[in-house]
Amino acid sequence: MKSNRPIVSALGLSAVAALTIASFATAAPDTHKQSNLKGFELQNCELPKTAKVTESDAQIRESAQKGLNFLADKTVAWQEKHNCMGCHVQGVTGEALSVGIHHQYEVDDDKMKVVLTGLLDVSGGIRSEDGHAAPNGSLRPSARSYSGAAIARYDEWVKNDLSDDLLKAAHDLLPAQDQQGSIHQAYNAGVVARGPLQGTYQAIQTWQQAYARSADDRWLTAIASGERYIQSIVDGWYANPPTDVQALNYALLGLLEAGVGPDEQVAKDLKARILWLQNEDGGWGYGQTLPTNYSVQPKSTTADPKGSGQSSALTTGQALYALRALGMTDKDKVIKHGTDWLVEHQSEDGGWSHGGSEKGEAMWAVLGLVSTDVVTIDMAGLKSGQHVGRVHPLAVTTKDNSGAGVHKVEVFVDDLPVAGSCSDKVKYSLDARELKEGLHTVEVRATTKTGQQTSRRWIVYAGNTFLTNVGTRFENDATKISFRDIADSKMGHNVEIEVFSTVEKDGVSVKSKPVRKHSQKGNQGANSYVWDGKDAKGKALTSGEYVAVLKMKDANGKVRQTVEMPFVHDTLENQRRGWGDVAGKIDFAGDDVQGAVIDLVDEQGNVVQSVNSTKSGSYRFKNAKAKKKYKVRVRRQGFKAVEKEVRTEAAAEAPAAAAADFSLQAE
In what order do the strands lie in the sheet containing 391-400? Predict the structure, then answer.
């Protein structure tokens, strides 16, 4: 099995806009042409007939490969003996194997199939309703959170042939989310299963990929609730710090999955605390406690002994995985130090211990190692999640971990080439003054002399972009409107939410009268407003089509951003009876396209809705009027505009959904 396009990215982030960029490269003049969004071409970078293999950090990848083999063998043996879904057994292994495939390690197809069978078909699997997955059973949330998280990684990084199973697992987890937003796991197995923080992180991972694959915004409200729960736990730690690093790791991983940017304050603070707990030997252990002045940034984040816990493979691998998700790489000393500890303490058979928790421990140790791709890519001058508004000089450096050496480096913006070099580094300038408002992606691809390729993606925000991930979901006779506020935590602002009724005009529902208004103080992170279906006087309104208008106002009361979200205030079942969805997928040269702008246009030429494609290239128009003809139009800067006709039906997506799929061509 092989991932179509390995990309290392900040967890949970996705691009939703196009851009204009000016850039330059610093390779020799005869190796490339100066770039703009059109026509950049890297020349004279032919691969050598033979590649000289040199000494490098290949030992890390060898160790990771041994760990993957150990984990797969132990899980296959366990499943053959028990023939059931063992909560963490297939879950942790399936996730580790998927991450390994993503980072170009060798995984035996037959063993992967056995693990997938354990996740899906045996007692307790996603497709079953018995064993651990029995309806209303206490272990169902645990079974679904472990299996859902594993299938989410598989769906994103290996193959999307199990997307229906992913959506089933995601749906099954919704009733398990409590009012606080957490997923409580009845299954607790010592160091492997760690309660609601872990369960919530895994559920968010499942929902995030369900959203990426389906583009259904109802998953965003569940994600937002989970993020708020984790944030509340972190807030409580300032007075009562957690007892070990696992809690910090799960909190950070869950927040990153939910969409928190590495530069947001909560992520920076959690990062500092995880680094503070690194032992002198490079590892992390159990039983370490944070200082009571948790809100104060530590003076040093070097690997000094701070706790009494002896380093372990599980906590060390887990901490490394969390820190790598933030964007740290082997170039960072703390990552290198922790990685060396794992390699040094690995047994000859590829494991780190031999007992009941051997698979869970190996899974986290492996995840800490297999995140080392064939090539390490670093970029100075850019962080995922940051706002940009000027010329940003950027420098990309790469390091080969396979021994072959890096042959070329290329830079892409929204899938279009903008710079490159026939070497292991490149420099270019990101002129954010030319960017349109919204979310933008910058991707670097490095190719070794043996032809292997590694990619890494950064996401930035341009202009007045402060409210993202807007979603709605009807539950408990109310409509929940959720969104992420990514404005700087020091920026004084308010968010105003207004609900409008609609009227039909020329066969199209348009915004009419305001029926409810709500204002709240701006708060970085996940936010929500629950509309009870009543007007300002408390009168219950009829079910049907409405529009939520969100406005971000700065400290002076100036509107900096406006987002409109049409929704149907009614049960999901009634929505499907009276309205139809239009959905599809966008690709370019076989790769998923993020951030394309897709319009739904009626027969009169009116744009009824506009959405953006997810990180999996999916888009969806919810609640379009049934039995009507529309055109779906795709717009993306630097690409030819395309459109197709569709007809909606109630209780279904547009018939022949493939008709709404698009393959883009560069202009």
Answer: 375-380, 391-400, 425-431
At 144, list the tokens.
Answer: 């679904």
Maximum separation of any 2 CA atoms in the chain, in Å: 78
Pull the structure tokens for residue 52.
Answer: 């000289």
Beta-strand pair 525-531/478-485: antiparallel
Q: What are phi and psi of 345, to 5 degrees?
A: -100, 10
Q: Is the pTM of this model over 0.70?
A: yes
How far from the centroid of its chain's Cα atoms is residue 305's Cα? 33
Phi, psi of 322 (to 5 degrees): -65, -45
Q: Which CATH class is domain 467-570?
A: mainly beta
**Where do the DSSP E strands lie in 180-339?**
284-285, 311-312
Residue 182: what are its φ and ψ, rounded to 5°? -95, 160
Q: What is the pLDDT of residues 563-590, one digit of tens each?
A: 999 999 999 888 888 888 899 999 998 8
CATH of 9-52+377-462, one of 2.60.120.330, 3.40.1650.10, 3.30.230.30, 2.60.40.10: 2.60.40.10
Which overall architecture, per CATH, does domain 58-371 show?
Answer: Alpha/alpha barrel (1.50)
- 3-state SS of 120-170? HCCECCCCCCCHHHCCCCCCHHHHHHHHHHHHHHHHHHCCCCCHHHHHHHH
Q: pLDDT per residue over 334-393, tens digit each?
A: 999 999 999 999 999 999 977 666 777 888 898 899 888 899 999 999 988 889 888 999
